[in-house]
Amino acid sequence: MNVVIVGLGEMGASLACDLRKNPQIKLIGVDRDVASLAYARKTSLVDQTSQDLAEVATQADLIILATPVESIEQMIEQLGQLDLKTTVIITDAGSTKRAIMAQAQQFLLPKGITFIGGHAMAGSHLAGVQAAQMGMYRHAPYFLMPADEQAASRVDNLKVILAPTGANFITMSVDEHDDLMAVVSDNPHVIAFALMNSSVNDLGKSQDFGQYVAGGFKDMTRIAASDPQLWSDILLSNQGAILNNLTSFRQALDQFQRAIEDSDEETLLQLISRAQISRQNLLIKRENND
Amino acid sequence: MNVVIVGLGEMGASLACDLRKNPQIKLIGVDRDVASLAYARKTSLVDQTSQDLAEVATQADLIILATPVESIEQMIEQLGQLDLKTTVIITDAGSTKRAIMAQAQQFLLPKGITFIGGHAMAGSHLAGVQAAQMGMYRHAPYFLMPADEQAASRVDNLKVILAPTGANFITMSVDEHDDLMAVVSDNPHVIAFALMNSSVNDLGKSQDFGQYVAGGFKDMTRIAASDPQLWSDILLSNQGAILNNLTSFRQALDQFQRAIEDSDEETLLQLISRAQISRQNLLIKRENND
Fold first, then answer.
1. Do B194 and A228 touch (CB under 8 A)?
2. Known SUPFAM superfamilies for this protein (chains A, B) (predicted)?
3. Reported confidence tier of residue B287, pLDDT bands at 50, 70, 90
């Protein structure tokens, strides 16, 4: 079986490390960067490399697009124009899904090509082929979003091929995925950014008050150091779900504010207890992976 | 020199571990719990133990009150009625300071007794004498709040005695301390509680959506698992500063909300970049301790 991975960055190269474990898979790495391809060959990360997707796509049984979102969109259009195997599965690794699914709708589905959107919640702050890490996806949530019924019927095929990652595969619709991301990822970033900014407004430069903070503040603001362009793109690509969840967060915050204003200890105890129990239960099923 | 530590819980017992390093100090441990005192003697954590503060307080050169806040308040009243050494320094380890400082004002200052409020941002989720840990205070912010000018003139004496902790001592007023805590500790807790509660409102039980979350959400909600009674007490003891900072946080959140609503990428990039740089600078001076 021929698996083409486009983009040998941290996500794609780590996927290659895991898929190596299956001797039935021939791995073909595609990247614009010659040095990355040379490194991938030298370290036997893949069996074959190419700078040109068109050159290798037609032999592929599975094509994994693991580049930035804009580039994924362009490649979907390009792939729609090639003479691919009728049984090929195309998937991606983009963290925002709506635009990518729209491209698949326009360029792949009319030609009967199977597209299953993918989004794994894994990765570090590192980048590039040298950040490749075997087991990076282990136990990580890995969302699969089939573009149509035909794609839905082939999700199990994709899971079997990706099984060496050890990821926790979850199939859902794009809308469900985007609503979920608003709550568990997008808004936590917005809140961390806002907390960092308001703290600086109140206390002055962070290099001056940093000596006064403990683990709680550091944890709460860790993701505030995320990449501005990436997160601006993500937040603008999921506006509706984010704004809905922000309203919900503000309501929860209002409850605390009123209880503090009213010195209402009973309500405060209830609100904090609810949060405490929910947080304690959050990791019950996967305690060992925290 | 006789140092009395009242309360051999995690904070007091860990302090004892560090003060042991100074052979000039005779450590006297006071606790209501007989088993804790027996453990402290058996492990040579202290040189002498007592269940009765009054019995050992009059010989003390330094008294460290490391019990829950309410009990600290009661002991300050009790100490004001004893015939202490004129040179004694009394300090505490309570995380909320206003009520404690008011007690010192009422019962100690009129008798010329030196009181220096203390608050170390250290500790784990563990409790009790067996959680004692040498070096627990190392590099931790340790706030010292002298109750009057006489106390201010003796802060350096206290720092010399506590030096074996390796803590990062910072002298400030109670008001400065409470404003700072609102920003770096109290409101981060409120936000974590609210985020946990709104996520459950939007997604249902946490044991069901826990499998979908990544490190960012876990970090942002870790302190939401904090003790309800402790945090209800803290939030209600620092209402003014917390409500001020909540307003500031909401303004920062509003800026993000407007930029997302308006698809204003330029503003969003600026807001996120400001947060990113501030977070990167937060740990510049103490990177090694993160």
1. no
2. 6-phosphogluconate dehydrogenase C-terminal domain-like (SSF48179), NAD(P)-binding Rossmann-fold domains (SSF51735)
3. very low
